[in-house]
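## retry 2 of 3
previous attempt timed out at serialization; input unchanged, resubmitting
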Amino acid sequence: MTPTQFIVTGYLISIIIATFLLLLPISLKDGVQLSFVDALFTATSGISVTGLTVVNVSETFSVFGTIVLLLMFQIGGIGIMALGTFLWMILGRNISLTYRKLIMIDQNQNRLSGLVQLIRLVLGLVLLFEAIGTLIFTIYFHFAGYYDSWLEAFYHGLFHSISAYTNAGFDIFGNSLTDFSHDYFVQIITIALIILGAIGFPVLIEIKEYFSRDNKNFRFSLYTKLTTSMFFLLLLVGAIGIWFVENELYYADKSWHEKIFFSLFNSVTVRSGGLSTMDVSEFDSATQMFLSVLMFIGASPSSVGGGIRTTTFTIVILALITYALGRSEIRIFRRSLKQDDVTKSFFIFTLASMTVVASIILLVSIESSHFSLMAIIFEITSAFGTCGLSMGITSELSTLGKFIIMVLMFTGRIGVLSMLYIFQVKKRKENFHYPKEDIIIG
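## retry succeeded, writing output
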């Protein structure tokens, strides 16, 4: 198998194993039954860290079942090769060149050097942020009176911290974060964890290097500048856009601070978080379409999020502006972009758009008599962007509809290019070329 086929197979095997673990009686609460399709859907959603669910997690799964879910979040969020490398290092095994190639593909890197050190830093950052989040939530849940016992506070704090950081979107509160819609402390910490997970591991590592001051001549890479700028620009535009549309609608009877936190939290979580402080079906259809676009864009590359990623969207926009101005070279931050990166970005954007549109048409043809077009568009983009927000139709989808959503969640997690590379065989060298000829475009 090619490295891409090997990694995709690894994720598929993980989903199958997780499915059967969730079907075990020890994973379910007394008297609860779970069908194979619903278990498969939950496993796919967990491994792809999406958060769309067909069952209520708190009412369905036991403590053992939630532990299985947490392991799924780590596999999907950190990456199967990163966890495998961690196990290899614990066992004292050498990381072979073939294994390094797998890490490179799984972590969306373009060079082999420094991959083992990258994995060490990624795992260290993940454990650090999840531990800090767990500690904060445990202490706060107990002293704020949400849970009387420390054990129960720790249980909910641990699950929520990992779910937020990996952008999994699952919850064991029973109704996502609706009960915390006016608890701004919980929202702020959750927002911080979602951003730390979605902004991308390379960005976090470069920030760490910047503050360590080991290298006095350190400068941020073009990748970090591009993805960070677009990431926070989209957060700002998202919050302002939601406020602008909903100010006289859903926000009509809300106070100024409620408007701020509803807009900010939705702008953050819609990128790939999946946790919600309100029912998004109460938003106007214009807002729902706007959120669908943000979910389609998704998070940064080499992060726990899905979608076409921020760099792809940035390069497409820059290319359109450059072409409109009559220039031939894309320049940003005193650097020029490689033509291969521009071509790859347009390829990903086009392929992702075709995938989403085809999925919408297919799901509408199956479910049009039960759900509105807007609800289906929202569900499709949420699945592709591995976001997890829903207008409440997930559990009511037909079996075929659920399989469509599962394929989209998996595609959004591993990337449309990886899905395409599954069918790729070894590259063949072209022995000859035909003459080139101009065609009329536009």
